[in-house]
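step 4 of 6: structure.
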Amino acid sequence: DARVTQTPRDKVTEMGQEVTMRCQPILGHNTVFWYRQTMMQGLELLAYFRNRAPLDDSGMPKDRFSAEMPDATLATLKIQPSEPRDSAVYFCASGLVTGSTDTQYFGPGTRLTVL
Amino acid sequence: GQQVMQIPQYQHVQEGEDFTTYCNSSTTLSNIQWYKQRPGGHPVFLIQLVKSGEVKKQKRLTFQFGEAKKNSSLHITATQTTDVGTYFCAFRRGGADGLTFGKGTHLIIQP
C-alpha cells in the first residue's frame, strides 16, 4: 500500500532555530503539496510542485519559509528562523493530477512546536 | 478569496443516529471534495463531486452536490463509533491544483 511519508513526525525547537521537514511522495505522483493545520486557521495550502517545478507558493511566508523538491522522491519545507506562531502540523500530500483526476494523498504530518 | 463555510462546527450524536454536514459557498464551485480526519490523524480522501446535482453513495455515506454547485452535503446513516472524526469539504480554485478547505465539522459519537 503506497503511502506518503514525512519526517520527523514530531519536532520541538526553540525560537530562531532552523527547521527542515521532509516528505517522500508516492512514486509516480506528479504533484506535491504542503499544507499547514492549526486550530485557528484550519488547513491552509502553503505551496505545491508539479513535476518538481514550483507552481504556487503564495500561501507561504516568503521571508522565512522555503520549499524545494531536489528530486522526485524528496520534497522539503524549511523554516529559518522559526517563530512560536509557526507551531502547527505540517502535512505533505501527493497526487497524480490530470485533467480528470486530482485525488490528494496526505502524509501523517510533522507536528512542529516552537518554544 | 473564494471560501466555503461548513456547518455545524461540532455535532454530538448518539451511536445509531444520522449525521449531516453542510458546505456552502457564495460562488459557483467547479468541484467539491470531501475528506475525513480521525483524531490525531491526517486527512483521507473520501470522494469528489463535479456535476450539478450529483449524488454519490459509499455504504452509509451519501454525498450531494447542489444544482447550482454552490453547496454540498455529507450524510451518514446510522453512525458508528468508527465514524468519529472531522469531516472537511474542499475545492480547487479554477486553474489551480491546491485545495481550499472548509473549517470542518467535528463528529462526536456517544455510545
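step 5 of 6: annotate
 - Residues 86 and 106 of chain B are 4 Å apart (CA to CA).
 - Chain B has one domain: 4-110.
step 6 of 6: archive
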